[in-house]
Design a protein that fits this description.
With 504 residues, the protein is an alpha+beta fold. It folds into 2 domains: 210 residues, no CATH class; 188 residues, no CATH class. The chain is 37% helix and 24% strand. It is built from 14 helices and 18 strands. The chain is globular, with a radius of gyration of 26 Å.
């Protein structure tokens, strides 16, 4: 880990956010925020209030800034004004049209002021895949795309054709967290407790950190080895019910039953029992009730994915990986299905620890390449992910070059408005400079003297007025809002692992 940590992966971002303020409120405040979420929730601000009929019914419209580290000029919630829905729509249209290309000036000027040694660096184009996580950015490194599942409600396998590994399901959710990726219920709770015990007592157990990590991975393997018999009991019940109905059990008929059970066939009372799992009787009830086990989302998703990608699970199987420490993963394998649509329990017998790797598969792809290091693989995939996270588009992105991203609209289903964004992916030297120098310096100065910090880092980019058509009781007139600047950084380590202390 110590060999890998000095190589940060950073994208510098910047742009403008809009605020409609009350009369006389024309001086913004400086906000400095740090978060493990690059869609920085800690930086959520009320941009303006919006109403349909009465001003008194106005509700705050929130916006946010892209970046794990953000310095921004903002207005407080008591300083923002209210707009009718019509006028708010007018503001959004003008902001979108006018600030499509304005963000680039912040990033480019900031980069030019950092240091001349970063100029003239060779740029590299990186292809982008339409996927949700950085590790799945297969096009960035020339890897295979995962085939679509045979059932629309099943998740695809994240990565296929990984050198020496085959197919793997990856997640950023930790092994010692309950209620995700097949980890759920009382068994999941016990897994979390067992791992916590190992973390707290490994020294008294006469383990070094390498042995501790292997012990944690082994606990994950034991957990899933304990789950498979129960899942198989339910799968056997489903298969037998299909046969009794005079039908042939196929992956398709099995998927239909599992999804039906997951969605509709469980009563509210039964579903509540499954969700809460309040007593030991739960396990006996599950075994006796057969397929109702899949009422629990954690089980249903895993089993449905297996049946929905049967050509993969039925041949070589799939490995599952979970972070157990920063840059350290447990790889549990193989989840293999038999011809009668049950899990091969004897195939699930490996728990491998992969460390000093940003994503679990970095080292595998690097070993199979003639010219890529682990860091090269990680950079390519994370830069592709950052661009796609913002734009939701494919195509390509470039290192050490200004990349236009978007002018802010609604971000997914959060109800929050994104600012305008442009970004530049830093090469190794610039990334070190930002991570080790720029960010700590900004945090230190902001803590000591906010005004000085604002003058040094943001006042070179003055806020701008946004004029937009405004309908009043007197008819049409021009209103104005503020476009306030921000600068930030997307730090791959911060995004992936958050604070490392809580792992240890």
């Amino acid at each position: 880990m110590s060999k890998y940590r000095p190589e940060p992966i950073i994208s510098l971002v910047g742009g403008y956010q809009r605020f409609f303020t009350k009369a006389g409120r024309d001086t913004p405040h400086t906000l400095l925020s740090s978060s493990g979420n690059p869609s920085n929730l800690k930086s959520s601000q009320i941009l303006y209030k919006q109403y349909t009929d009465k001003v008194s019914d106005a509700v705050g419209i929130k916006g946010f800034y892209t970046g794990n580290f953000v310095a921004a000029q903002v207005y407080g919630p008591e300083e923002v004004g209210a707009l009718s829905k019509r006028n708010a729509d007018s503001l959004e249209q003008v902001f979108f049209n006018q600030y499509r290309n304005k963000a680039s000036g912040i990033v480019s000027k900031y980069m030019a002021d950092l240091s001349p040694r970063f100029e003239g660096v060779m740029r590299e184009a990186i292809r982008i895949s339409k996927v949700d996580t950085g590790e799945e950015q297969h096009r960035a490194i020339g890897a295979k795309a995962s085939p679509k599942p045979q059932h629309g409600k099943a998740e695809k396998v994240d990565l296929v054709g990984v050198p020496k590994l085959g197919s793997i399901q990856v997640t950023t959710r930790r092994l010692d967290r309950n209620s995700h990726h097949g980890i759920y219920g009382l068994f999941g709770k016990k897994l979390v407790e067992d791992i916590q015990y190992i973390r707290q007592n490994y020294k008294s157990m006469k383990m070094n950190k390498k042995q501790r990590n292997q012990a944690i991975a082994d606990k994950g393997l034991q957990y899933f080895q304990g789950r498979l018999p129960t899942w198989n009991t339910a799968l056997k019940k489903i298969r037998n019910d299909i046969i009794k109905a005079g039908k042939t059990p196929t992956a398709g008929t099995m998927r239909k039953e599992v999804f039906g059970i997951k969605s509709d066939k469980i009563s509210p009372d039964e579903r509540n029992l499954m969700k809460n799992e309040l007593d030991a009787r739960y396990f006996a009830e599950l075994v006796n009730s057969g397929p109702s086990i899949f009422a629990h989302r954690g089980a249903a998703e895993v089993v449905l994915q297996s049946l929905g990608n049967i050509s993969i699970y039925n041949t070589d199987g799939v490995a599952y990986s979970y972070p157990i420490n920063p840059y350290t993963y447990a790889v549990i394998s193989q989840f293999l299905m038999t011809d009668v649509f049950e899990y091969n329990q004897s195939a699930l017998k490996h728990a491998e620890v992969v460390d000093s790797s940003f994503d679990v598969t970095d080292s595998y792809f690097a070993q199979a390449s003639d010219n890529l290091t682990k860091h090269d693989v990680a950079m390519k995939r994370n830069f592709a992910h950052n661009q796609h996270m913002i734009t939701k588009q494919t195509g390509s992105t470039e290192t050490m070059s200004l990349n236009a991203a978007l002018t802010g609209g609604l971000y997914k289903d959060t109800g929050r408005l994104q600012g305008s964004v442009d970004l530049q992916h830093a090469d190794r030297e610039l990334a070190k400079f930002i991570k080790k120098g720029l960010i700590p310096a900004a945090q230190k100065k902001a803590t000591k003297e906010a005004k000085k910090f604002r003058n040094q880092f943001l006042d070179k980019f003055p806020q701008k007025q946004i004029y937009f058509p405004k309908t009043t009781i007197r008819g049409k007139e021009m209103g104005f809002a503020w476009a306030t600047p921000y600068i930030g950084a997307i730090d791959a380590e911060k995004t992936k692992f958050g604070g490392s202390a809580d792992f240890e």
